[in-house]
Amino acid sequence: MFGAGMIRNLGKELHDAGIKKVLMVAGGGSIRTNSVHSQVTDSLKAAGIDWTEGWGVRANPTLEKARELIQVARSEQVEAVLAVGGGSVIDTSKAVAAGFYLEDIWNAFTGRETIKQALPVYTVLTLSATGSEMNSFAVLTNTLERKKWGMGSVHIFPRLTIIDPAVQSSLPFNQTVNGALDATAHILEYYFADDTAIATNAINTALLKTIMEMTDRLKVNSADLVARGNLAWCATLALNGLSGVGLKGGDWACHSIEHAFSALKPEIAHGEGLGVIFPAWIEYMSERMPERFQGWAHEVWGEHNVSRALRKFRDKIESWGAATSLRDLGLRENDLPILLEIIMSSRSIGIFSKLGRADIEPRLWDGRRPVCRSLA
Ligand code: NZQ
Ligand code: ZN
Fold this sequence. Notes:
With about 375 residues, the chain is an alpha/beta fold. It has helices at about 10-15, 30-35, 35-45, 65-75, 85-100, 105-110, 175-190, 200-220, 225-240, 255-265, 270-290, 290-300, 305-320, 335-345, 355-360; strands at about 20-25, 50-55, 80-85, 120-125, 135-140, 145-150, 160-165. A five-stranded parallel beta sheet has the order 2-1-3-4-7, with helices on both faces. The protein has a two-stranded antiparallel sheet with strand order 5-6. The protein folds into two domains: about 5-165, Rossmann fold (3-Layer(aba) Sandwich); about 170-375, Dehydroquinate synthase-like - alpha domain (Dehydroquinate synthase-like, alpha domain), CATH 1.20.1090. The longest helix has 23 residues, at about 200-220. The protein binds 5,6-dihydroxy-NADP and zinc ion (ZN). 5,6-dihydroxy-NADP binds next to α2, α5, β5, α7 and α11.
């Protein structure tokens, strides 16, 4: 469900699905200050749905929190998991829903156990970024092992998602930008994979341009609901399957690298990390296979020259006040050895073009401008 005031339908939807009690999963408290919590609980009360609340999911959510909430879901005998928040809250909720029936939820990430069933997942989205509200993936950090890994299952695809873009007016601009950069990255992960999916690439071009335009508008006026709504819809479409239709899959090297950043430093927002890594990856890859990047330069940036398009991309990120270097992200030279080890422990780095240690190591830091003269 999409649009202003839609949260009021939540209780009835749960009631109609025969659900009597839910575990409401939430983050650090933003939903209390922007009235989303009261909108949700009013709707649950009106429909006679019982609930218990599980707070404290942090950004870059942890396996430990998911395990804790699985115990709550079991002891409270809930029949569904209701995520009220951004991607971190939704991913934790998905893990709780699947973990309810597993020996240990981490086994679903390592492949040791297969998800065969899950509690139904419902979501009220408060931050458009990940697309988790309309996909079957979840990403968690195993802090002890310093692994930020993803998993997917059809059983954790949300039964219902409510997106009321108005509730995102409470986002600070930097969080709006993190969301825009994540959505941009989801599209770019597919964009260079295959030039025969012409219709999909045309849709993706339109999404990339719209994300930029709407984010520019929100920089000027955070209450611009038309921009908010269109940005929200772009972010959902960026990772709900549409942006990859007709392709054999995306590349995901930048995502693997970014997940290592956040595994090492959980305070690095996923989208902001991608805003540093993606331009550097394009710079590196376009030196090796320039023809793959011509279409992007021309269609998205109106440039025939990839370097000039890349300059515009970086300028745009900078104009939004986001990080443009590892230093901006808070990483220092002495973090690099462990960072490199975490990156290299990823299951794969890139699909259409696999990256190895020799591709990554020399580009992580050149002293002044960290990573690829530029993962700088
Ligand atoms: O915790 P609260 O208080 O809710 O505050 C959050 C959090 O601090 C705040 N926030 C959310 N909605 C708000 C708000 N503040 C004010 N007003 C609102 N309306 O924003 C902060 C960040 O929230 P978070 O959920 O962490 O952000 P996001 O949605 O970007 O999620 C990022 C996580 O999703 C993973 C990322 O790796 C990261 O762990 N991803 C999940 C994917 C998926 N499931 O498909 C794919 C992505 O590529 C990504 O890996
Ligand atoms: Zn992402």
